Amino acid sequence: MKINLENLEQICPLGAVKIMPNEPTGTIGGKGGTFVVSGDELNEIIQYADGDVSKIETILGLDQGYLGENPVVVTIEDTSSIRIPSGNELGAWQEYWEPGGYTSGGVKEAVVNPAAEGTYTYEHLFE
Questions:
Q1: pLDDT exceeds 70 at position 13
Q2: Tens digits of residue pLDDT in 39-74
């Protein structure tokens, strides 16, 4: 499915998630927003990875080792600002960024406005 403005909200219909190396503090995301993926899709990736964080990094187009050994999954409920990434956002790693709303590993991604503390929840991937 090609991502366009008409079907963009289908990426994260029940909230958006991102995976980070550490527990967030304060606002998540910079001036251009923060990258997110569908919680359902991230759950599929986590199941596929079967405990191997490097597989998650590869699929999401992140440097090997970036997420560490016990990443944090952050859920952002407000997706009213969801949009297709432009590649100019903070965290758009030019060696991996692909135009069109997909990671270099083929996962649908979007951007939402920065999430202020209190507007997101998080949990460690491995408890």
A1: no
A2: 888 999 999 999 999 999 999 988 899 999 999 999
Q: Quick count: other Cβ atoms within 10 Å of Cβ 99? A: 9
Write the CA distances from 40 to 32, 47, 66, 87, 95, integer angstroms. Answer: 24, 11, 22, 24, 26
Are the beta carbons of 2 and 102 closer than 8 angstroms?
no
Q: Helices 53-60 and 39-49: crossing angle, nearest 10°? A: 130
Distance between CA 63 and CA 45 in Å, rounded? 16
Helix H or strand E segment including 48: helix 39-49
